[in-house]
Structure formats: C-alpha cells, structure tokens
Amino acid sequence: MPKILAIESSCDDTAIAVCCGGKILASFVSSQAQAHTSYGGVLPELASRIHQQQITPLARLACETAKIKPADLDAVACTAGPGLLGSLLVGVSFAKGLALALAKPLIAVNHLQGHYCSLFINQPKPVFPMLCLTVSGGHTQLVLVHEPLKAEVISQTRDDAAGEVFDKAAKLLSLPYPGGPSIDRYAQTGNPERFTFPVSQLPNFEYTFSGLKTALLYFLKEKLSQNPDFINQNIYDICASFQSAVVKQLVSQLTKAARTLSIKHIGLSGGVAANSALRKAVTDICQKESWLYSIASPNVCSDNAAMIALAAHYQYLQGTFSNQTLVPYSSMGSSFSR
Ligand code: KG4
Ligand code: ZN
Questions:
Q1: pTM of this prediction?
Q2: Residue 78 forms beta bridges with which residues?
Q3: Order of strands across the sheet with 13-20?
Q4: Ligand 1: which atom is nearest the Cα of residue 139?
Q5: The predicted structure's pLDDT at residue 286
Q6: Ligand 1 pocket test: which of 29, 136, 276 has the largest number of ligand atoms within 8 Å of its C-beta?
Q7: How far apart are the C-alpha atoms of 141 and 288, rounded to whole Å?
Q8: Which atom of ligand 1 is nearest to the CA of 163?
Q9: CA spacing 20 to 30 A to 44: which of 30, 51, 128, 247?
Q10: 36 in Cβ contact with 46 (< 8 Å)
Q11: Is the CB of 62 under 6 A from ligand 1?
Q12: CB contact set of 307 (below 8 Å; sequence gap of 6+)
C-alpha cells in the first residue's frame, strides 16, 4: 500500500494529492485562473511565481488532510512534462527537494498519462485495450491504452488543441479566460444548428482546429460589419453552433478509430471532457454502438494531482523511478516514456 505525495504544476493550477494503495486520501487544486484573466491567457512567468507561493502550504494541507506525516511517505511524484517549463520547474524542484530530504524515491509522471489515469480514479477497471480521447488546453489525442502504463498515441491534432480553440473563440467573443466553460454555459440555451461552421475530417483519425478558428474569425468580422451588436444579440446561438462543430469533429474521429480498431471500451479525459455537449455525444455514441465507456468525473477533468498520484502509484508498483537528474520537458515527443 504505497503512500505517495504527487505534485502537478504543468500550467496554471498548483495541485497536490496524497494517495495510499491507489486510493486518493487528499487532493487540492489551487487555480490561478483569476490571476491570468486580465491577460486573456496564461502568463508563464506569473504562473511560476504563483506556483512558488502555493506549493508549500498546499503540500502541508494535503499531508494533514490525508493524516500522513511526510516521513511516512513511500515516494514523491511530480509531473515532469509536457507543460510550461517555468511552471514544471517549480513542481519538479519541490519534489526533488522533498524526496532528497526524506530519502524517498522520486517518480516522474507524464502529464498526459496522468490525464487518462484520471479514468481509473474510483471507476470500474476498463476493458483493455481502451481508446481514450484526451482533450485539454494543450493537447488533443487518441490514446490506445493497453494497460495503465502501456499506451500509445494513435493520432493527435495537427495544430490547435480543442481547449485552445475554445479559449481563442471565447477571446474573439470577448468572454473571459478560460473560455471553454463560458462557451459551454452559453451554448446550453443556444441553437447549435443556427450557424454552420466547418467540421474537418482528416485521414488517419487526426484532428485540426485552425480552420474552424479562422472560420469563426471571418464569420464574426462579416456579421459585425453589418451589425456591431451581432455578438451580444446572438451569443447563445454562436456558442452552441461553434461548440457543436468542435464536438462533431472530436466524436466522429473517435468513432471511426474505435470501429477500425474494433475497440469495446472508450475513455474521455482532460479539461475539455468537462464539456456537457461532448460528454453527451460520447455517451450517446457509446450507447448506440454498445461500447463500454469511462468519462472522467467533472472534478478530475481539469488539471489535478489525483490523476498524477494514480499514474505514480502504477509506476511505484512497476518500480519505475526517477532521480535527482530529472529535468522537466515542454513537449510530449512520440511516446509517454522518456
Ligand atoms: O486539462 P486542462 O485543465 O489543462 C491542460 O492540460 O491544458 O484543460 C484546460 C482546458 C482549457 O482550454 C479550458 O477552456 C478547457 O479545458 N475547458 C473546457 C471546459 N472546461 C474546461 N472546454 C470546453 N468546455 C468546458 N466545460
Ligand atoms: Zn492537463
């Protein structure tokens, strides 16, 4: 029953969790969204500084809540990448220091491996192989998961990530950062068929969102030239129609891949997995095709350390440890392991 303290600091959320035997005993996320709102996106230097302020009190709080003394931990884990280097450096340095002081092993976790591991928190074990759509602010990928630590990326986005396109669309609509939740909220009372936006269908189950983003930009330019109040008067329908185009592309590529690979179990994880239309569309297609499915609970869709703790738990059991030479990395590369 390994006791692990896990740290997640890859972007603008400082998060710490403690698990014992894979059970999450404490999990805290300190969101920085408010601090970055006026910049319309994450300001990397500010993110690192806030991580530095948050990390020690949050680690203390997590240990107190889990009723585990730091000396009783069996390992310290952290997200090593991909993410913002300055932000990662804070979590990695803290984890290295704590592991060194406690003379405990260090575990380096891939953030995206963490995202699909969010599906194993308090959920029945999937039927492997599971095809997981991971949709976040920085990544959009279809991952074939053979077992918790054995997974391969079978396709991803060629340009923007789904969360990124939600955030950029929200900026064009003057909605606050992060844009995904605002678009989701407005879309709930809008008509998704009122406006038509392109739904790309690339070969090999790949994704692309840059054309959709440009289509929205030119659509708004044209409409605003005729009516300067167009956005305010139509915000619900614009959000619903735009969101529908994102969801259609996400789900159609997922469906094609699942059929081609004869997959029986579908997963959905990452910040954009909180999107209500996407959750419904994935549920609907899985029920129609009689596929089993696991959708991350809303509280573990966005960045959190519980998912990192769970990935670390499997690494601990497998004996995959890092050491004091660990260096954070900003991009994913071609596989989860480094
Ligand atoms: O996984 P995450 O917390 O961070 C990254 O690893 O990137 O994902 C953050 C992204 C943001 O782009 C945010 O706008 C998006 O997830 N997001 C949503 C929703 N909630 C968060 N996008 C659409 N609908 C939502 N309800
Ligand atoms: Zn993430």
A1: 0.95
A2: 7, 108
A3: 23-31, 13-20, 3-8, 75-81, 106-110
A4: 7
A5: 98
A6: 136
A7: 23
A8: 12
A9: 247
A10: yes
A11: no
A12: 8, 114, 115, 117, 118, 121, 300
How do residues 201-247 score in pLDDT, each as one tens digit?
999 999 999 999 999 999 999 999 999 999 999 999 999 999 999 99
On whether the CB atoms of residues 300 and 307 are closer than 8 A, the answer is yes
Q: Write phi, then psi, for 57 (nearest 5 degrees).
A: -60, -35
- At position 317, the amino acid (one-letter code) is L
Q: What is the dihedral of CA 213, 296, 76, 55, to 10 degrees?
A: 60
- Ligand 2 geometric centre to CA of 138 (Å): 7
Residues of the chain with pLDDT under 50: none
Residue 10 CA, closest ligand 1 atom number? 6
Digit-coded pLDDT (tens) for 175-202: 988 899 999 999 999 999 999 999 999 9
Q: How far is CA 28 from the centre of its chain?
A: 16
d(CA 86, CA 89): 5
